[in-house]
Amino acid sequence: MKNLLSILTLFISFAVCSAQQAEVPSMKYEDLEKRLEKENDKLLVVNFWATTCAPCVKELPHFMEVNDQHKNNPKFKMLLVSLDRLVDKERVIKFIKNKNIGAEVILLDDIKRMNTWIPRFEKNWDGNIPVTLFYKNGEKIHFNDGEMSKQDLEKTINDNLK
């Protein structure tokens, strides 16, 4: 019985770890834009955040719960875009592991040009985070500036996943 529990614990630990990213790719805005274009057949939820942003960290558990509910739906994808500095990449990876982040995470290494790319995502975005953008069939359908409640996140997804 003790061996069975040990094996079960090891299996559960492996399953949790394998659901998380071991590496976080870093990219420039143009690469992110191309990445988003590849998901044009889905409802795509793109959340801009940072490990040093308290409202971002506060809302992430809601995003993970909702992501877990929809992760097996081929018409749904959640992408978390970290705005942490490239030199803090290891901190982002550690954060992902510690917080059991199951959605895909990328690091946008393009802070110096943020005044160029922010308005390309959303003209009303003032640069503050968190920000969440929703795309359907390659078109932006919703912009949420600031922290997003679980209820608002679920409603926006459910209204547009039909």
From TrEMBL:
Residues 1-21 form the signal peptide. Keywords: Redox-active center, Signal. This is TlpA family protein disulfide reductase. SUPFAM superfamilies: Thioredoxin-like. The keyword Cell inner membrane does not apply. It comes from the Bacteria. Residues 5-162 form the Thioredoxin domain. InterPro entries: AhpC/TSA, Thioredoxin-like_sf, Thioredoxin_CS, Thioredoxin_domain, Thioredoxin_ResA/DsbE_sf. PANTHER family: THIOL:DISULFIDE INTERCHANGE PROTEIN DSBE, THIOREDOXIN-LIKE PROTEIN HI_1115. PROSITE patterns: THIOREDOXIN_1 (PS00194), THIOREDOXIN_2 (PS51352). Pfam families: AhpC-TSA (PF00578). The keyword Iron-sulfur does not apply.
